[in-house]
């Protein structure tokens, strides 16, 4: 074998090994994104399961607040049935969070409800679940950021493009949803 052939085969070997390492790295990052999305879904399911108990507990004290209860039930159904992309799921989840805030705001007007042990426990469970959802969102977005950076860096972007890797969406609020979530809930009687 000539020395030139050995050099060419060595260069091709290094390129192939690099491509394999990049591919494995991208697969690992994509798996992390999938796993972190699953964590979000587990926490959202937990919240969906708690909401009917919360609504039923509050209904006993605030029977004339049916519009508020209906909004919570509709938001829950919409969020549970959403099988769309990350952005539409985030929008429905944020609407549900806002609806839950209105339930907690109702409690301020019913001293007996605020003292009810079931309500307090449910409120704590939902608050804890909301915190876990936020932590899961941060973990998911961190993994999305990691894979998006890897897909865009040269020369990894060439290999990623050849293998069909695409930029992934963050799970975040848009500007109108940020305003809606940050506004205080208005309760009218």
Describe this structure in words.
It is a single chain. Helices cover 80% and strands 0% of the residues. The longest helix has 57 residues, at 3-59. Mean pLDDT is 83; it is low at 180-189. It has one domain: de novo design (two linked rop proteins). With 189 residues, it is mainly alpha-helical. α1 (3-59) runs antiparallel to α2 (66-81), α1 (3-59) packs parallel to α3 and α2 runs antiparallel to α3. The chain has seven helices and no strands. The termini are far apart.
Number of strands: 0
Quote the CATH topology. Answer: de novo design (two linked rop proteins)
- Structural class of the secondary elements? mainly alpha
Q: Which CATH top level class fits?
A: Mainly Alpha
Number of helices, where a helix is a run of at least 4 consecutive DSSP H or I residues: 7
Query: Ranges with pLDDT <50 over ≥5 residues?
Result: 180-189
Described by the principal axes of the CA atoms, the overall outline is rod-shaped
Average pLDDT rating: 83
Q: Please describe the biggest sheet, giving its number of strands, its sense, and whether it closes into a barrel.
A: none
Q: CATH superfamily membership, which one? A: LemA-like domain
Radius of gyration: 24 Å
Beta content: under 5%
Q: Secondary-structure element sequence?
A: HHHHHHH
What distance lies between the first and last C-alpha atoms, to the nearest angstrom?
A: 91 Å
């Amino acid at each position: 074998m000539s020395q030139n052939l050995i050099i060419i085969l060595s260069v091709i070997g290094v390129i192939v090994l690099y491509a394999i390492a990049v591919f494995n790295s991208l697969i690992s990052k994509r798996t992390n994104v999938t796993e972190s999305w699953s964590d979000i879904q587990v926490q959202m399911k937990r919240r969906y399961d708690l909401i009917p108990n919360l609504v039923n507990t509050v209904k006993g004290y605030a029977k004339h607040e049916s519009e508020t209860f209906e909004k919570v039930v509709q938001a829950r159904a919409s969020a549970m049935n959403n099988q769309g992309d990350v952005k539409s799921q985030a929008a429905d989840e944020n609407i549900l969070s806002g609806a839950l805030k209105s339930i907690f705001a109702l409690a301020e007007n019913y001293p007996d409800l605020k003292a009810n042990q079931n309500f307090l426990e449910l409120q704590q469970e939902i608050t804890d679940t909301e915190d876990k959802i936020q932590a899961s969102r941060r973990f998911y977005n961190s993994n999305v950021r990691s894979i998006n950076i890897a897909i865009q860096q040269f020369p990894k972007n060439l290999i990623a493009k050849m293998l069909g890797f695409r930029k992934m969406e963050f799970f975040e609020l848009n500007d109108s949803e940020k305003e809606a979530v940050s506004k205080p809930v208005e309760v009218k009687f």
